[in-house]
């Protein structure tokens, strides 16, 4: 029986092979391999062997290296530093400026056991082998900016007439998300519109089609028009450092152009499959990149569906949106549809304003209104459904059904036999997805430090599903997090002290019991020596023993034992109090006062040697976390997690992860 689209099967098999090698749970893809083995003519499998040399593990350096190295900042607006040396390249989050150095680099590979796997894969696709820290550095000389950096800086500065909307205009026009402020980026991501503000097939497709239409209107020869269009696409590839989305658009345009000149209409599925196959051959790490997966799904749904294209695209992206956002709204879908339809005229206006800067003062009001509209839509709660964030197994089950459906269509006899039984396939999918959702709730039982901006909030879920919330912060995203985790009322709410960044939501978080420091006229007061216990979680109060009328120094200090680990919560205490704590080695330290220099005590760090230190910070003007604190942690080789940069932090008896 002949296969209708062999390149599609080859591309799917190649993607699964790359994913199976790079992902720790890649063995789950085995059922699809079995189906492919039945469908695929054996002679085609030989081509898959071309991937084997590419997927062999590359020897990477770990530990400490004493070498010459360079620190390069690839960012234009926000820092995006990497360390380059003869031994490799690594992500760098330190404070050293660009330049050539010599010194000791401490290298750690990217973790493969947390939900930031997609982001780590994106970094790996740029040739980075992990994260690095530096100590004992010696500065030699500065590094001149690259041509790409100089161009992007010129382009960004040219948009200064946009005022506060300069970053947003830059992101829309050039597809570089670093122009977006963090809060706006979070809101756009929640609305599912980030593809409109980062480089995607939508951006480059609009530019490509606009050039072709313009050339046709000016009666240019098609060959000349396409040459100009390809030059623009290649230029964008260069500006974005050869981003996978830019390359995909370039290759697809080339396939369509080749079909025109050879007078053959290429099959859309096979065209997309050829491009994906080529991209995976160029860089197998792209198999786990969100840009590759989301872009391919969106383009495939738009191009392959004959009717209701937008519906099928949203349906294809819905499971991943579920994973990344955790909420849906009919208004979000309409706003997404409307803004997608307006993308071409908005980009056209931005291009005119870029060429003729006097128009920028007018256009910035349009972008200000757009920003305000996005915030209003995000804040509307009706017609919005919040659901628990699924584990990757749920998505694998959903997309497994999608791929099985596509594979069954490849052989006519099978498709005729199974088409009438599709309802049973759907029922099986619902049952499997429900089972994985139940597993999801159980897998989230552990300790979570939330990213709530400049504030503290941490949740302990016991093995039996009971909950202890330590501080609330002031960001209402905490309420959504609790709801999506299935918590209607926390069993214990413990407030380290009553500063707004620790207790602003205390009145709106439903709680059975509330605990506060001694001297506070609400809830149950706690003092040194008190103990609390809930479902195997033991909480020992280490401070305060007396009242000093300083709310920060009177903060509760809690030593929590749970899931075989010890966690120290320190509130906002200062260095003097921190140094007097009678605590030895611990697993997790919530650093006091958001990483303030006034809370740093070197002796306490030496004594405790925490495996992970949590810096719970947000946008602030206090200088948190202090460079002195970061230097103290890095010089001792202590790992830290900055919630502002890396999001939530979670652990239980199985390990640590951030998301």
Q: Could you characterize what this model shows?
A:
With 659 residues, this protein is of the alpha/beta class. It is built from 25 helices and 22 strands. It has an 8-stranded mixed beta sheet, with no helix packed on it. It has a 7-stranded mixed beta sheet with strand order 14-15-16-17-18-19-20. Strands 1-2-3-5-4 form a 5-stranded mixed barrel. The longest helix is centred in the middle third of the chain and has 26 residues, at 330-355. It starts with 5 loop residues before the first helix and ends with a strand. The model has no long low-confidence stretch (mean pLDDT 79).
Quick gist of this model?
The chain has 25 helices and 22 strands.
Features:
659 residues; alpha/beta; 5 domains; eight-stranded mixed beta sheet; globular
Low-confidence spans: none
According to CATH, the homologous superfamily of the largest domain is Ribonuclease Z/Hydroxyacylglutathione hydrolase-like
Q: Determine the strand fraction and express it as a percent band.
A: 15-25%
What's the CATH class of the largest domain, please? Alpha Beta
Order of strands across the biggest sheet?
Answer: 13-12-11-10-9-8-21-22
Computed CA radius of gyration, to the nearest angstrom: 27 Å
Helix content: 40-55%
- Any idea of the CATH topology of the largest domain? Metallo-beta-lactamase, Chain A
Query: Given the structure, what is the number of helices?
Result: 25
